[in-house]
Each structure stands twice: as C-alpha cells, then as structure tokens.
Write a structure and sequence with these properties.
The protein is an alpha/beta fold and 115 residues long. It contains 4 helices and 5 strands; from the N terminus they run ββαβαβαβα. Helix 3 links the parallel strand 4 and strand 5. It comes from Streptomyces luteosporeus.
C-alpha cells in the first residue's frame, strides 16, 4: 500500500508482535509512552545513529517506522527506502496504535500515554 507521497505504508492492524518497529519520536514522547519492544532512534538523531538501526534490524526483514501521527515516520521511511532497505510507514502512528488498544508503556515499563 502507498500513500500519496509514494512511501510504502502498513496499518497497525497488519502488524504482529514479531514485526520490527522503529520509533522516531523525540525522547519526551518516547518516555511518556511507546510500543513495547520498539527500537527508539529520534528523527533528530537519525542520520548520526543510523548504525544502531542496521545493527538491530532483522536482516532482510521489513522495518516498520512509527511516530505520533505518521509525518516524521514517512520521512524516515522514504530515507530508508532510498538506502535500499525494506521499510514501511505505520499509518496513523502511535495515535492509531493506542486507539487500536495496542499496549503502550512508559520509560519504566508501566502503562504509558501517547503525547
């Protein structure tokens, strides 16, 4: 599936707990609430920390990129696709994730909120 910008997208409902998730929101957003098991690399640090992603992403697997509502993650997804990686923007971001009843945890592992 593609959105108007031509960036591959995936819906929250299509993701399973085994899918790799990259959260590109800023630290305060991450600490308030994120998907358990996601890798956190803020968009503002992304290029400098790109090596962390290549170390932790599953080889040959899709990288599902998420932010609050889908804008920042679409930009990072476009970058990853340009690098030749299999990446998809999570449609609607963490707002849709939480609205769908998916678990959200804070920095301490307790139930979190999307800000």
């Amino acid at each position: 599936m593609f959105i108007g910008s031509g960036v591959p997208t995936v819906t929250v409902d299509a993701l399973t707990s085994d899918d790799f998730l990259l959260d590109v929101r800023e630290i305060d957003e991450w600490q308030a609430g994120h998907a358990e098991g996601a890798l956190h690399i803020p968009m503002s640090d992304f290029v400098a920390r790109y090596g962390e992603l290549t170390e932790k992403a599953p080889e040959g697997g899709r990288i599902n990129v998420i932010c609050r509502s889908g804008g920042r993650s679409a930009q990072v997804t476009a970058y990853l696709v340009q690098q030749g990686l299999d990446a998809a923007n999570v449609e609607g971001g963490m707002q849709v994730w939480a609205a769908a009843g998916r678990p959200v945890v804070d920095a301490g592992g307790a139930p979190g909120t999307v800000i």
